[in-house]
Amino acid sequence: MTTEPAATWRRYSPAAYWRRRMRPFRTRRLLEVHLLVLLLLTAVASTALFLSCRQIQHSAEALASREAPAVQGLVATRLAALRAHEEANALVEMQLIGVAGSGEAYRSQLSAADQGLSRIADRTDQDLGTVKGLLATYSNSLGLGASFYRDQPLMRELRFKEADSLLNREGVGVALRLEALQRAQLRHAEATATMGRWQRAGWWIAELALAAVALTLLSALFVLRDRCGRDWNAYLLAAFVLTALLAVVPVMAAASTGNDLGRAVSDLRSISDVSQRSGPGLAFAQQRVTEESEELRQRMADTAWTDGVYRGAFVGSLLALVLPVLGLGLRLDNDYWRRR
Predict the structure, then answer these.
(1) How many angstroms separate the Cα of 98 from the Cα of each of 86, 121, 269, 274, 305?
(2) Potential cystine with 96: which of 23, 102, 214, 319 (Cβ 3.0-4.6 Å)?
(3) Residue in 221, 212, 285, 296 with CA at minimum distance from that of residue 261
């Protein structure tokens, strides 16, 4: 009663099916074909995996070193310019014009805005020349209104109106230009953090090629045991384990990095939204932007582990290419090629 199911299983099992499929081919040709297929598939998988890992690493580096600091810098510059105007107006309202040390608040904000633009210059490809010129003119007008015309209220009022126009004029003011640059830079950051169609295609190619490599390795191990009566080939077993690791670890690392980049872009949007506040909340907005920017920098620094994954994928791909050559190449050389 128990022998019939066992015989049926032996007849229709995957091993029996694969044995029948390979029966017309000579053992040497089977091993050579397996070796050639493994070389081609591993080369394709390694190349796709290498390029995909390199791309995700490049995206993380670009967001951390260029895109995110540029957005944060533009936000901080805009808030500093608005805060300088607020501090100068407060100085006039409290009649502190001419009092020693009374203008330090707005001067420090103007200095922060100027330094912010200077730091952004090498982190963005946007043209900042017009904004720098307007900011310099705005700083000059604000400084003259807050300190130079202390005994001439009409001239002081004129300078403040001029500064306000330079800061808030519809479409061309410093604040509005900085806001437009900020939105454009945020779009750049979103594009950098988003995995495109070709990047997804690269991961699919790598995963499919690695799956095909794993199946070919299993087939080669089966041929060696079934046709050659050999024990499990250590090189092919190591290649199979390495292939499984390459199929799992890099894609998990890429998914984790993609989530981190998505959260970073979400934080940049939050920082950008906070910067839209004006009026009495400017000081609070500056403090919050500073705190959230520091937290974001720390989180982006934690993604440096992608470098190790990238290097590991590179070394693993080379080993995955070499191990099948050793496993099948040595067996073919010992059993067939030397006998010519």
Answers:
(1) 17, 35, 41, 34, 55
(2) 102
(3) 296
What's the pLDDT score for residue 1? 43
Query: What digits encode the pLDDT tens for the residues 28-41?
Result: 787 788 889 999 99
> What DSSP character marks residue 279?
G
Instruction: Give this prediction's pTM.
Output: 0.77
CA pair distance 264, 1, nearest whole angstrom: 65
Count of CB atoms situated within 10 Å of the CB of 50: 18
Q: Which residues contact 69 (CB under 8 A, 6 or more apart)?
A: 119, 120, 123
Max CA distance (Å), the chain: 115
Q: Which segments of the chain does DSSP mark as H helices, in order?
A: 3-12, 14-22, 27-62, 68-93, 104-120, 129-143, 153-168, 174-193, 197-227, 234-274, 282-301, 306-335
Distance (Å) of CA 110 to CA 17, 77, 141, 166, 292 = 79, 9, 12, 14, 22
CB 131 within 8 A of CB 80: no
DSSP 46-114: HHHHHHHHHHHHHHHHHIIIIIHHHHHHHHHHHHHHHHHHHHHHHHHHTT-TTSTTTTHHHHHHHHHHH
User: Which residue is it, tokens 């017309």?
Assistant: 24
CA 191 – CA 332 distance, rounded (Å): 50
- The dihedral through the CA atoms of 158, 167, 125, 299 has a sign that is positive
Q: How far is residue 290's CA from residue 287's CA, in Å, rounded to a whole number?
A: 5
What whole-number distance in Å separates Cα of residue 174 and Cα of residue 188? 21
Residue-level pLDDT at 303:
62
Q: Which parts of the chain have pLDDT scores under 50? A: 1-2, 9, 100
Residue 212 pLDDT: 94
